[in-house]
Amino acid sequence: MCLDVGGEASSTHERDALISEMRDRIQFLEDEHRRKDAILLNMTEAMKALSPPEREAPETVEEAPEGAEPHPGTEEPQQGAQRPWWRRMFGG
Fold first, then answer.
1. What phi and psi, each to the nearest 5 degrees, are found at residue 87?
2. How far apart are CA 6 and CA 10, in angstroms?
3. Domain that holds residue 35
4. How far apart are CA 78 and CA 62, in angstroms?
5. DSSP letters along the chain, please?
6. Is the overall model pTM greater than 0.70, yes or no?
7. Which of 25, 66, 81, 83 is in Cβ range 3.0-4.6 Å of 87 for a Cys bridge?
């Protein structure tokens, strides 16, 4: 009987040690996740501050006479080409 009681105490102690270790690991991973989120937020804000403000499209559009061909270089670039890659990827 003494062996069983000692075995149970040892097993309980090991189980408690494992649970404690797992809690520590979970806490570490949660802290690491928060830290990485903060880094991403800071990087996004820094990129916004570094990029030039976007130009607004003119409110009125002049119509060309019928049959007139567009002049080279007067076409508006596509919307995606005006925005930096990181804005297209992350929005904003």
1. -75, -40
2. 6
3. 1-47
4. 18
5. -HHHHHHHHHHHHHHHHHHHHHHHHHHHHHHHHHHHHHHHHHHHHHHHHHSPPPPPPPSS-PPPPTTPPPPTT-SPPPHHHHS-HHHHHH--
6. no
7. 83
Counting Cα atoms < 13 Å in the Cβ hemisphere of 86 gives 10
Nearest to 89 by CA among 53, 43, 58, 56: 43
Report pLDDT digits (tens) over 6-59.
667 889 999 999 999 999 999 999 999 999 999 999 999 999 988 877 766 666
Number of domains in the chain: 1
Q: Is 83 a domain residue?
A: no
75 in any annotated domain: no
Could you tell me if residue 56 is inside a domain? no
